[in-house]
Amino acid sequence: MRLLPPLQILTPTPWGWKHCEQLSTSGLYMAGMSFSCAAASSPVHSVKGKACRWRRHISACHLTANSHPFKSLHGYFASPSSLQDHQVHSEADYSAGKIEELKKRVGFTLRTDIHSTRSMVLVDTIQRLGISHQFEDELELILDRNPSAAQGDEDDLFSTALRFRLLRQRGYNVDTDVFHKFMDRKGHFKESLSKDLAGLLSLHEASYLGVRDEEVLSQAMGFSEEHLRRSMLNLHPVRASEVNLALECPRQRRMVRSEARSYIGKYAQESGRISDVLQLATLDFKLVQSQLRIEIAVLRSWWKELGLAEKLSFARDRPLECFLWTVGLFPEPRFSQCRIEIAKTIAILLVIDDVYDIHGSLDELILFTDAVRRSWRVEAMEDLPEYMKICYMALYNTTNEIGYRVLKEHGRCIIPELRKTWVDLCEGFLVEARWFSGGVVPEMEEYVGNGVSTAGTYMAFVHAFYLIGSGVNKQSSDVVNSCPKLFTSAGRILRLWDDLGTAKVEQERGDVASSIDCYMKEGDGASEAEARLHVRSLIHSSWLDLNGEALAATSLPRSTVDAALNLARAAQAMYQHGDDDRLPSVDQHIHSLLIEPIPQDNHISEEARVGRTSEFTVHE
């Protein structure tokens, strides 16, 4: 077995960043060693298939959007061995030292007055800049140890809504009664609040943390949106743009790393910015981006040696986009290994999806589903066509590799749990294949329910839960393995955003009907535009469920809850361009998060400075 050189990974420690984890990867995992629950160890078998000449299809996928193939961007990412260059290490060491120095100063500021609105604003800024992982102790002090103390003394709309949002984001089910003082005797928000622009924006952001049957937050959303839209006519263009962004995509629904990249530039233009915070955010983003490039190099090497793209010419070759999904789900630096492993599973999922969608005959698909369902042995693939043997072995070996890693690092044998997720997924794919073969347009709920599984929702969450390993016990394992509503709600949002973003392309390639088609069938002649509006309303409704489940999921580790929320956020970021081409595309997200360096110096124009010293600075 040919091994790549050991790879230094930059990982965060309580003292900053250091080269503390080594990864070595076998180029071809199909030839490596893996673990099976039936025996302590067993060889992972390899299959060498003949080169295929099937026609290549243009495809839009369940877990990614169209973009350039991964190999077209490989020049941006150095090979693992070259990343051990002394200059890279020296630069990282300098950044780590500077980060530690800045952390101490910012941390002191955070701890100075933990009950004030000023402290809450700084917490919000730190989270938005993507550096909250640097201040876990301080966040615990301010938000966790005594949540009621975080209410502070200020009782204006801005402060109340901000505290409410931060605590709900942290998992505390704060009562909406805190907003009653801003309502009149008829139970409506006071019209005098319409002049408090900062308060309205804070209220609007807080309203998106609502759950079902919270009438106060439902009113807050409508009231704040109405008055914010009216105010835009009189705002400086910079502020108007900020308000418009909040209306189109509130903070609760933004992809974490994309928001960090975007807000670093905006924060540099704020008159009330804290220089240490800005410098820390810039250095941290740069260092995390370097770590992500290293992870991509590992993934690229694995994908190249696996050889699925070369053997199966009809299959999608997009592991970079698969990796972008994992950056969305697990943005914190400490989840490095999880990102790599989950990206592998998503890349294989897309290949299997293409087998079911565009290449396999129905009889062949039945054989493949039965092989995955009936056993977890190499012998199960004997009756499969040659191209399916390659898919089966890639799935079998990669799953066993992940199972072995979890056994080695956490002492748990979880092959049966991992396998079950693939059985559910393949059975869902087969259902869709039967619909397509029979020309069936299913009922909306039947389609969406099946689509939660075929989108890879359960598969990704279960694999990540065991790979991360924290908070895993019998109670949490039982919840995760039962496909909880937390996962289902996130999966519905993924499925529906997928349809909004890819339905047109999938129809062109002859894919199964989407939720848009299902509604047009059920809606007595509803137009496509009406169907899209309905799907958006379903997404909003699913967000209410997801928010509620996130607050109620006390038996699950916070990393799992955050991953569910982040999947819903990533789905919107990845698919919204297909629904509205004015919004960023997958390519743009890839370049901004993984390729383009962040500017070291942030120059502030006078126009921007004037635009950012208006109503929004009164609470700083």
From TrEMBL:
The keyword tRNA processing does not apply. Pfam families: Terpene_synth, Terpene_synth_C. The keyword Ribonucleoprotein does not apply. One of its GO terms (cellular component) is chloroplast. Residues 304-543 form the Terpene synthase metal-binding domain. Keywords: Magnesium, Metal-binding. GO terms for molecular function: magnesium ion binding; terpene synthase activity. Residues 86-235 form the Terpene synthase N-terminal domain. One of its GO terms (biological process) is diterpenoid biosynthetic process. This is Terpene synthase N-terminal domain-containing protein. It comes from Musa balbisiana.
